[in-house]
Write a structure and sequence with these properties.
Length: 52
């Protein structure tokens, strides 16, 4: 899951594409996991953590 978080911060890929690449499969599952771990929706991570 660390790879998915890094990709969310550093790439222009969509959450859907990252979920497939990471093996999570469903973007909804990745969104729930990221929100549960970080307290932020995946879409907020690049803005919050200095990515794109």
């Amino acid at each position: 899951m660390r790879e998915a978080l890094e990709l969310l911060e550093s790439s222009d890929d969509t959450v859907e594409r990252i979920a497939v690449r990471n093996g999570t499969g469903a973007s909804a599952a990745l969104r729930r996991h990221v929100a549960g771990v970080t307290g932020l929706p995946p879409e907020a991570r690049p803005r919050t953590f200095g990515g794109r």
